Amino acid sequence: MDFKNTLKAVTLELRHELEGRYDQHGNWQAGDLERRLASIGVRRDRTSVPVDELPHLVSEDIEARRVIDAFIKSHVEAGQSPEAAIAEFARDAAYTWANRLLALRCMEARGLIDEVILQKDAYGGRSLQHNRLAKKEPERCAGEDEGLFAVMFDEFARRALELPVLFDPRGPAVALRLSVAALKRCIALLSGTMAVKGQETASDEVFTAPDSLGWTYQYWNTEEKARVDDWLKTKKGFKCEGYDIVYKTGLYTEPYMVKFLVQNSLGAVWMGIQPNSRLCEKWEYYVRDADGAPVSKKPVSDITFLDPACGSGHFLIEAFELFYSMYVEEGAITDPGQICSSILERNLYGIDIDERAVQIAALALVMKAKEKAPHFVPRRVNIVATNIRLPAGKDHLEEFLRKYPEDVQLKPALFAVFEGLAHADELGSLLQIEEPVEKELQALKARYEAVGSPSEQLALWDEYQKPVQGKLPIGVESYEAWNVRAIGRIHAHFEAEAHGADLGAAFFGEAAAKGVTLLEMLSRRYDVVAANPPYMGSKSMGPVLKRHVELHFSSGKRDLYAAFILRCLQLAADGGRVAMVTQQSWMFLRSFADLRALDGEKRKKAQRAFGGVLREATIEALAHLGPRAFAEIGGEVVNTALFVLAKAKPAPDHRLTAFRLVGPKSSEEKDSLLREAIRPLRSTKGAAEKHPLREAARL
Hints:
Elements: H1 3-18, E1 20-22, E2 28-30, H2 32-39, H3 59-77, H4 82-109, H5 128-136, H6 148-160, H7 164-167, H8 180-191, H9 204-208, H10 212-220, H11 222-234, H12 244-249, H13 255-263, H14 266-273, E3 305-307, H15 314-330, H16 336-347, E4 348-352, H17 355-372, E5 383-385, H18 395-403, H19 411-420, H20 424-427, H21 434-450, H22 454-460, H23 479-498, H24 503-523, E6 526-531, H25 543-552, H26 560-571, E7 572-583, H27 585-588, H28 593-596, H29 600-606, H30 613-616, E8 618-626, E9 640-646, E10 657-660, H31 667-678, H32 687-690
């Protein structure tokens, strides 16, 4: 059974059922959720019908309208048209329903929960949990849906305790229920009682494959990616902006690429801390002599790893495995559940522009943790989506400050946060939000230092002496500690807003809290930054993205991935590692010359500006893969390179470890030859001297 073909067919069928599709003539055919919106009086092309003019609505539909109307209002205040807001709601609802159902199917197939999707004849065509409900509470199974919604929402509530980003009961996306017919078809597809035409039915094997979630994410966008690519070629003036950026740039990262990069970045950091560690003996892609840059000694719990374009979480999952083995070797924490908590709360961080990707990445990490500790319940997963829409005006912020007057001195910093979050949905990790916020907080610091005596200082900051939201009082301590606590209290206030009864304030609070989380992540500097960044030439960029890249990442303005190289170096700590999958063009083309290294004259004019990758960083490992490195991309479309940088100027005697694998015709062959070339370099320190790369590695 080819699980990928079956998974692709099932994923696309779920999307067609829930969201809709373009037909062969390019006309949009609405899915179940858009039809359900119409049934409760909400359409893209006309004004919504008031609820009191729709006497057929049941209580669940009336509550759904209340949530949806507030959602549309909040997005209109943020500058969207009502039509765009309705389309966004339908899209978000479709992928969230699909992700929830897929998550339950994956978890039950792996034995993590009792079956709630998989239907069996032994249970009368129901799932195990559905059968239990029918016997225990038959009255809940008496309606048209026969208890399906009851069993689903019961399980959603249980999963919300460990995965709120996906199963949050307050999430607006699932306020609107599917039709009963659509829910039954989705369950039949996932349960394997219905097959997509020309494909086998979906068995447990489809949902237990290690990379099934990643492929699900990729396949969901298949048709939309083809549409965007076609429009870029055929529609004059069409540019990629908004959610089309997600469709255009999403790309599954092959496992061998992930392993090579994580083992030679995070693995290299660990080997620098623990040079006698034997963990590297299990790392097939680890190039031992490439770990040359010095590493600060620290416990595992203090090592940080960021993927700034995390997609469905491939780098985070591989890093989780390495971190777990590092904790075990260190021995300071021995309980599997505590190790998993520390990894998710202290070590791993992820950012993506796509909420759907963040849902899947969080799910994948929690499932990985449960493999180690079956009863583990995470307190936090540090992954944030940048689909943040805040009101264009300041009214909500002024109201917030009236409600929390103790934060009034932070008003300039708060305004800087909100202004900096403009276009976060397109810019993602490329946002420079931390810079203006830091400027305002430094101004507050200067005011603090300008006040004379300690008593006067205490008076100035007296309003920060009170505990807020259960947090410790903020005193006149170091600026850095005050900064952390000040941002923390703001985050706590916005979280409180997000859980309030007023839906308008709740949507504002949720978006603002997400923005502060993003600020916190972008303000840190990480030991390892690893990514498969989006690829998109400047000709395809929309005006907002293009202008931002030209302004902040001028030497990388030719392609989005090049801007991400620069951003990843910014986000890495001094001496940290940057590990990336990119196109090879930055290594050769003249248009990327300034990215590689500024010449003497330009360096003089730029003064303190970035001098180029080759001047400011040390390339520790490089695998030049060329074409056909991705299994799903044929021909010469994408020419690929893998590299690991140390954020440190290269030493005069630095030697680069590189592999040239442009000749092999498939990803499998490149993978095999890469491991073969690395094998003699893994045995002992100095092996590179004794075992120069064989010709096979240079094909």
